Amino acid sequence: MTVFVGKGSVFQKTISASLTTVAGVRNFKFNPGENETMETDDLASSYVTLQETGRAGGGSCSGQLLWDPANATQIAMHISFNTPTVENYSNTYGSTTESIAYTGILTKFELTVERADPIVADFEIAVADRPTLNEA
Question: What backbone torsions phi and psi does residue 22 show, to the nearest 5 degrees?
């Protein structure tokens, strides 16, 4: 098994019709969501049996960036927060070619200021459609 480091990972959003790397991203976490199930047991069952429904949801991408209010890619994040809409995003992981594209809505952009640390912004995107994970 190969182990990959996070250095070199990229978080992108669509800016002016093309996926563009957002500057200053320190970390991000991607959750594609959960596959929904339903209980299919009856009153005589002694075990709760499950079956898939074919639906999924609840995915998110969250992360933190070094805040720069004059940076064009971060201004694009501000615009996405001020005018929420479904947009295209993509995450690429470390030195791999693994990239996951998805659509989502920027739901959180929170600034943190501490005396001896850089100003950072925590962001969160609600995943709008089921992403496709690599199967190769």
Answer: -80, 130
Instruction: Give per-residue pLDDT as tens, 4-19.
Output: 889 999 999 999 999 9
Residue with token string 């925590």: 122
Place of tokens 């969160």: 124
Q: Where are the alpha helices (DSSP H) in the chain?
A: 72-82
**pLDDT class of 93 with cuts at 50, 70, 90:** very high
The Cα angle at residue 101 between residues 130 and 96, in degrees rounded to 5: 125
- Token digits of residue 12: 């992108």
Q: 101-113: per-residue pLDDT in tens? A: 999 999 999 999 9
Q: Nearest CA to 85 among 107, 70, 63?
A: 107
What is residue 98's DSSP assignment?
-
Query: How many angstroms separate the CA atoms of 74 and 22, rounded?
Result: 7
Question: Helix, strand or coil for residue 92?
Answer: strand
**Strand duo 120-127 + 60-66: pairing:** antiparallel
Q: Residue 10 has which token pair?
A: 């990229």
